[in-house]
Specification:
The complex is a heterodimer. Helices cover 77% and strands 1% of the residues of chain A. Chain A contains 14 helices and 2 strands. In chain A, strands 1-2 form a two-stranded antiparallel sheet. The model of chain A has no long low-confidence stretch (mean pLDDT 79). Chain B is mainly alpha-helical. The radius of gyration of chain B is 23 Å and the shape is elongated. The chains are: A mainly alpha, B mainly alpha. At the A-B interface, helix 2, helix 7, helix 8, helix 9 and helix 12 of A face helix 5, helix 6, helix 10, helix 11 and helix 12 of B.
């Protein structure tokens, strides 16, 4: 078991290096390269040449990559010229706000999807299944920003229950825990609505698969109650594939969070990314892409390890 | 959106393999599926609206009327006017054109890359396959929307460049599907026979493998059209899509958000409904197509 975890961890190293290579390529397609980026409007050919020399950018590409990669390994993701701070420090200020809404949304969305999918899978092709399938299909087709607009219209403008955004930590606009909850409620709701459809569809088909298995017939013929058959036997096994799906859906979650943060003006990584894109702050942009890549790799790793823990059929060899 | 794994075209039933008009049978299954019909009608109507509409309804989408800013729908302006006094119905029609053309072109281009990559990887196998698939694994961990925004910020693209960027960032999924099908198809007798006759890899790829993965590829293409349209709308909504003044549903929605508190409902619902109409139709078609391909088994 322990060996399996170690081996699986080592296997994810090429993926991490791959993300680094990818980001390096992205950085080098920027017109003018990193020096131009660092200098921004203050760039002159002399300054660019000086920076290129000091960063070693006049060396062969392979050497450049090594220098850059070495910096990454030491936690140096570059320097943001709009914030005048190291990239990692800036991201560190914004990431927790994004993680907060993403994590809450993921938990809620999974709970709802599991309940819906289980009932749908059990009452397959009955009216409940048809109604939910149709509703889920609608939500599944909606772009995240459209969901956000609708949620603001309904809960903020027509009902007036929650603010449509404008959380601000600097001037104390959202004071205390409840102020935060108040402002995070709608972003979380949108993210739940945007993700629950995929998971409910998946859960439904997973549940249908489980219900057709032999062990369900065995459980029934043992005379177990229907509740026990569904929850103890079918549901447990249907949950397994969801774990893998979660690992794969991390980039989608952050993409959803990006759009939502912009619509609600919520100070997370998405808003940071957008502002950086408008100001052409490439080190921040690349830093965020890399951090999400890293989180995805780690998420997939955790999902695999978790899967191996809960599914005894997986061999650790 | 995460695409459901599509069922393959593998026909294990010998009777089905003998019978010739397999293709026409799955087409019939497609048309008999209620969602297929609804989807086709939906997409045809939106294409007519966007491309034939402007030929019938001759109002300009660009002329600003300073005397008629933010007008509610009336006889003169069937869908009202926007904040610059431009005819909203005319803008709605034009706004779909770019999304539909770029969305479709990007999907086809993305499939071309993805299918080629998958065919080569699956057919060659061995170390080449392993390396090619590890590259795909890495690309799948890259957050696509963020990369799209990054490239958009760097290049400030026109429609053609946007098509290319969308295609380059979206072909990884179909590659996996195609490769896994190729792995099973290439063991079949007819491929073996072709090899025995000395057929080149190119011949096997184009003549034996490609026709047999087309069903999967078609479903994936339709999924990708929806994905590209969402991506274009999202980019425009975020203010980083195609340059003004060419209207776009995403950009129209982003403008109308500023007037949400002024009860300007005619600015919000039409582009949203048009977008949703398009996406639902496309998803209906892909659902029906998937069922039709399954039902051949």
């Amino acid at each position: 078991m322990f060996v399996y975890i170690i081996r699986r961890t080592i296997q994810s190293i090429p993926a991490l290096i791959g993300i680094a290579v990818f980001s390096f390529i992205l950085l080098h397609i920027v017109p003018g390269g990193p020096a131009q980026t660092l200098l921004g409007q203050h760039s002159t050919p002399q300054r660019i040449a000086a920076i290129n020399r000091s960063l070693g950018l006049n060396k062969p590409l392979a050497v450049q990559f090594w220098v850059w990669f070495d910096n990454l390994l030491h936690g140096n993701f570059g320097y943001s010229y709009t914030f005048n701070q190291p990239v990692l420090k800036v991201i560190g200020q914004y990431l927790p706000h994004t993680l907060a809404i993403v994590l809450i949304a993921v938990v809620l969305s999974h709970l709802i999807a599991v309940v819906l999918g289980t009932i749908q899978g059990y009452f397959r092709n009955r009216w409940f299944d048809h109604v939910i399938t149709t509703v889920v299909f609608f939500f599944w087709s909606m772009p995240v920003f459209w969901l956000a607009i609708m949620v603001i219209l309904i809960f903020s403008i027509y009902l007036g229950w929650f603010p449509s955004g404008g959380i601000n930590f600097a001037d104390g606009g959202a004071t205390g825990f409840f102020g935060y909850i108040d402002h995070a409620a709608l972003p979380v709701l949108v993210l739940v609505l945007a993700t629950v459809a995929t998971w409910a569809r998946f859960m439904r088909s997973s549940m249908i698969d489980s219900m057709l298995q032999d062990y369900i017939r065995t459980a029934r013929s043992k005379g177990l109650s229907e509740l026990s058959v569904v929850f103890k036997h079918a549901l447990r096994n249907s949950l397994l594939p969801i774990i893998t799906l979660f690992g794969l859906s991390i980039p989608t979650l952050f993409a959803g969070a990006l759009v939502i943060e912009l619509v609600f003006n919520y100070p997370g990584m998405g808003l940071l990314f957008w502002n950086a894109a408008l100001q052409r702050d490439y080190p921040i942009l690349l830093g965020i892409i890399m951090i999400i890549g890293l989180l995805t790799v780690v998420g997939n790793l955790l999902a695999d390890v978790l899967y191996s823990l809960v599914d005894p059929r997986i061999s650790y060899k | 959106m995460i695409s459901q794994p599509t069922n393959s075209l593998i026909m294990d039933d010998p009777a089905a393999r003998e019978e010739k008009p397999v293709r026409s049978r799955s087409w019939r299954a497609f048309w008999h599926h209620p969602l297929g019909m609804v989807g086709v009608i939906g997409i045809v109507s939106i294409v007519l609206f966007c491309f034939v509409g402007p030929l019938i309804y001759h109002a300009s989408a660009y002329t600003t009327n300073i005397t008629a800013l933010m007008q509610a729908p009336s006889l003169r302006f069937p869908l009202g006017t926007d904040d610059l006094g431009r005819n909203y119905l005319a803008r709605l029609m034009l706004g779909g054109q770019v999304s539909l053309i770029v969305g479709f072109a990007a999907a086809v281009a993305s499939m071309a890359i993805g299918v080629t990559y998958g065919l080569i990887s699956g057919l060659l196998g061995g170390t080449v396959d392993a390396v090619m698939m590890r590259i795909i694994d890495v690309l799948l961990t890259i957050p696509t929307l963020f990369v799209l925004l990054f490239l958009d910020a760097v290049f400030q693209p026109n429609a053609l460049l946007l098509t290319l960027i969308l295609a380059i960032t979206s072909w990884f999924g179909v590659t996996r599907l195609v490769r896994s099908e190729v792995l099973s198809i290439k063991e079949r007798d007819y491929v073996e026979a072709s090899k025995a006759f000395g057929a080149s890899n190119w011949h096997i790829m184009l003549r034996e493998l490609l026709p047999n993965v087309m069903g999967t590829v078609m479903v994936a293409t339709i999924f990708q059209v929806a994905g590209s349209i969402i991506a274009i709308a999202t980019l425009s909504f975020l203010g980083l899509g195609l340059p003004a003044p060419q209207p776009n549903w995403g950009e129209m929605l982003s403008t109308s958000m500023s007037y949400m508190f002024q009860d300007a409902w005619w600015l919000i619902y039409p582009p949203g409904i048009a977008l949703l109409w398009t996406l639902l139709s496309i998803n209906f078609i892909s659902e029906a197509l998937q069922n039709a391909i399954d039902s051949r088994l």
